[in-house]
Design goal:
This protein has 499 residues and is of the alpha/beta class. It has two domains: 4-227 and 447-470, Rossmann fold (3-Layer(aba) Sandwich), CATH 3.40.50.2000; 230-438, Glycogen Phosphorylase B (Rossmann fold, 3-Layer(aba) Sandwich), CATH 3.40.50.2000. Helices cover 43% and strands 18% of the residues. It is built from 18 helices and 16 strands. It has helices at residues 22-34, 70-89, 100-118, 137-143, 161-164, 170-177, 188-201, 230-240, 244-253, 271-284, 306-326, 343-352, 367-375, 407-418, 422-438, 441-459, 467-470, 482-485; strands at 4-10, 36-46, 54-58, 61-69, 126-130, 149-153, 182-185, 205-206, 211-214, 217-223, 257-264, 292-299, 334-337, 355-358, 383-387, 400-402. Strand 9 (211-214) and strand 10 (217-223) form a beta hairpin. The longest helix has 21 residues, at 306-326. The relative contact order is 0.12. Bound molecules: 6-O-phosphono-beta-D-fructofuranose.
Length: 499
């Protein structure tokens, strides 16, 4: 296995007392195995100029992080990444901000990252780039002569072409994506949206076994639904059941059922609608008043982006309104907490929650839902109310699946969950646990890396048919695609590949 190079906007540099999540641990394990490099932003903003990259070595892994200048931060991070791509990829066209300046800054930071990274990459390294911040990175590396296998994984949803074309630079972005050998998405829906763009907008093509021709390059796209380290999380939650924080939480509930929401404070999470649904529950199920409390933990996030600050004010007002209208002297329906807790504390909270309320308007996967499932007591599990628009809904079919825009439906589902018999909760939980414990983050990582190592080798350095040759081909009928002309490129069989 070659050395692995991971590139992501945030880098999990190990530190004492660190609290790495399952994804970071899974990536670190892969880096440790054959030695590796993890490159990205340090999280620091330098006032004057970009500082030279900082190198830290832990075991067989080298972490290299670079600062951003104030201007880069504004154009690349708060600008194009989080005010343009983030709303667009989460189907929030009304919040889309378009600015040539920030797009330029985004491209420049990707070029600067590539320039710094290219010198550190060895010829047979496997390069794995993560997420929407870094779409052009692969193209920039190729521009610098890299012939390595380079893969990309998008952690967010990928929008249907009808939405994507609202972005003035969509062609430029998709051309950049074509520089990768393997583009991984969270769900088959995302792959389908990508293929629709390839065929309908870019006049590219798809062969019967999934090889895609896009802007004169041949690549593959597939769904790799990300998971969690289910066993470790379940153990952490079982242990945390007895932790002081969990005991204090339980004591404060006075026997009431806990309805729990946990996320970053982000408009894609559907929090205003969720608060409304809780308000509606109070109206439509008056007999349940006083039997539950809704606790929303909303960790501060991207506070330099206007839209996030506005959401914070909106939620403060909503929590105050609901409590003001509905509280009794001995009952308050909403606890709204605008801070973050470490994973172990959250695991304990999941353990004692009766309902996990996960209702994003759109989400690539949503690992909170999977952690909630893993955190439950198998003999008396809580119920999960889950948005149909989270990638995880494709897998967690035994949850109560709702449309988060339909306030009545969410309120009704909450009522159903609060009164669900234990046997039904156990049956639903068993089904969800089967999925969560089967499709772990380790399995996700291994599947992706196996396909990246296996497939790209076949593509590298080969001449590819012009996209125009394949224009009009549908993903299903295939026709005379690259596979017909180059049968030796047939990829190793793998689950989830298009075609
Ligand atoms: O899940 C998407 C994502 O952007 C991750 O890449 C990131 O770690 C997380 O959200 C938190 O966002 P940010 O890095 O902007 O603080």
């Amino acid at each position: 296995m070659p050395r692995l190079v991971i590139v992501s906007n945030r880098v999990n540099v190990p530190r004492q007392g660190g609290n790495a999540g399952g994804l970071a641990v899974a990536l670190e394990e892969a880096l440790e195995t054959n030695g590796g490099l993890w490159f990205g932003w340090s999280g620091n903003v330098a006032d004057e100029r970009v500082q030279p990259p900082k190198k830290t070595v832990h075991g067989r892994v080298t972490y290299v992080t670079t600062d951003l200048s104030r201007q880069e931060y504004e154009e690349f991070y708060t600008g194009f990444s989080n005010s343009t791509l983030w709303p667009l990829f989460h189907y929030q066209l009304g919040l889309l901000e378009v600015s040539r300046k920030s797009f330029g800054g985004y491209l420049k930071v990707n070029a600067a990252f590539a320039a710094a990274l290219a010198t550190m990459i060895r010829p047979d390294d496997l390069v794995w780039v993560h997420d929407y911040h870094l779409i052009p990175l692969g193209e920039e590396l190729r521009r610098r002569g890299l012939k390595n296998r380079i893969g990309f994984f998008l952690h967010t949803p990928f929008p249907v072409p009808e939405m994507l074309v609202a972005l003035p630079g969509h062609r430029r972005l998709m051309k950049a994506l074509s520089a990768y050998d393997l583009v991984g998405f969270q769900t088959p829906d995302d792959v389908r949206a990508f293929i629709e763009y390839v065929v309908g907008e870019a006049r590219g093509g798809v062969g019967p076994d999934g090889w895609i021709t896009l802007y004169n390059r041949v690549l593959r796209a597939a769904a790799y639904p990300i998971g969690i380290d289910a066993g470790a999380f379940a153990r952490m939650a079982a242990e945390a059941a007895d932790a002081p924080e969990t005991r204090r939480l339980l004591a404060s509930l006075h026997g009431r059922a806990l309805v729990l929401g946990v996320e970053r404070l982000d408009y894609s999470k559907g929090l205003p609608q969720r608060f409304e649904a809780v308000e509606r529950l109070i109206e439509i199920r008056p007999e349940l008043r006083g039997a539950y409390e809704f606790m929303q933990i909303a960790a501060p996030s991207r506070e330099d982006v206007d839209r996030y600050r506005a959401l914070k004010r909106q939620l403060e007002a909503a929590a105050g309104r609901i409590n003001g209208r509905s509280s009794e002297f001995d009952w308050q329906p909403v606890r709204y907490i605008n801070k973050s807790y470490d994973r172990a504390t959250l695991a304990g909270f999941y353990r004692v929650a009766s309902i996990g309320l996960v209702t994003p308007l759109r989400d690539g996967m949503n690992l909170v839902a999977k952690e909630f499932v893993a955190g439950q007591d198998p003999s008396n599990p809580g119920a999960l109310v889950m948005s149909r628009f989270a990638g995880a809904a494709r897998e967690l079919k035994a949850a109560l699946i709702v449309n988060p825009y339909d306030i009545d439906e969410v309120a009704e589902a909450l009522g159903t969950a609060l009164t669900m018999p234990r046997e039904e909760r156990i049956n639903r939980w068993r089904s969800m646990w089967g999925v969560v414990s089967g499709n772990t983050v380790e399995a996700w990582r291994n599947a992706y890396l196996r396909d990246l190592s296996a497939g790209a080798e076949l593509v590298r350095g080969k001449e590819t048919p012009a996209a125009a040759d394949l224009a009009g081909q549908s993903p299903v009928d295939g026709g005379i695609g690259p596979l017909m002309r180059h049968p030796e490129r047939r990829p190793a069989a793998s689950t989830g590949l298009v075609g």
